[in-house]
Amino acid sequence: IGNRPSARAAYCPHHPHGRLSLLPRVQYSKNPSQVDRIQERLDGLLASCDAKSARRRDPVDFIHRYHEPSDQEIVGLISASLAFGNAVSARRSIDRVLTALGPEPAAIVAGTDEAGLRHRLQGFAHRIYRGEHLASMLARAGALVREEGSLGNAFAGFHRGSDGHFRESLARFADALRGDTRSRSLRHLISDPRAGSACKRLLLYARWMIRSADGVDLGLWPIPPSALLIPVDTHIHRISRNLGLTNRRTASWATAEEITAALRNFDPKDPVKYDFALCHLGVSRDCPSRPLLIKCENCVLQDVCSVWKTNRPTRSAKKPGELRL
Q1: What is the spatial distance between Cα 169 and Cα 172, in angstroms, rounded to a whole number?
Q2: Closest CA to 283 of 95, 58, 45
Q3: Is the dihedral of CA 54, 59, 65, 71 positive or negative?
Q4: Cα dihedral across residues 34, 36, 39, 41: positive or negative
Q5: pLDDT digits (tens, 9 = 90+) for 74-108
Q6: Nearest Cα to 301, choosing from 43, 1, 52, 26?
Q7: pLDDT tens, position by position, 207-240
Q8: 3-state secondary structure of 70
Q9: pTM value?
């Protein structure tokens, strides 16, 4: 990992435009002591994360309401596909789809044609997606289940066929779910890893299915966790930049690769094990978008966070409790 700094504007509440001069956001080097220090802090974050409580607010919680792996695969696909935007809205939409499919979603998906699924999901909408888009994806998922026995078997076949190249494996899986469609909404619902986007939702689904069961992830698919890439959402992207795991300004496939490459320094066999804890550090707003003393002073990542180092807030001497940058 290189050391090229990138410029970032520091926030200042006293400036008429809320900004100070540009400050560097330093990316960490491969210096062993620096790597060890970041790993120690990330391990501390992982140990302190109340995964059970956080899971109740996460789309992955829907999967844990089912006991059959076949149902968990289908519920996971639905939950990951709709896991964007407002969290409350996303969970509401996921619940609507699962209610429409009934108590045995895998059986319904595998045994119902696309027209039948469209009928069940008639009137459904989540942002730009409609019931017809979700029905199309689920119909193709059902076809994979009928052909291969499970979505996990299908993915494993794609993985073997791509000589273990995870990006191509995921792309082939996405191709199978998307089919030959001209629908922009469906192409957005199931993004193409070859196109360079971060593919956060596909990577999130893969993490749920592949990482060993730990109360959050389920370990259903026979793929090594070392192959995974981290799902980069706005929280992971921002915190990773704060830690110097990437300097990239946009969330892309290259960003996911860069962050994951850094995390492999900490655990090459399971590089994305920190994803859930890091994401919920942002979701809970315990890691604010700009330094806040009340949030940052006790954060386990504080001394490896570049934002804290460059913009450390202090209490005003004139007004106790007031924050000053």
Answers
A1: 5
A2: 58
A3: negative
A4: negative
A5: 999 999 999 987 888 999 999 999 999 999 999 99
A6: 43
A7: 999 999 999 999 999 999 999 999 999 999 999 9
A8: helix
A9: 0.86
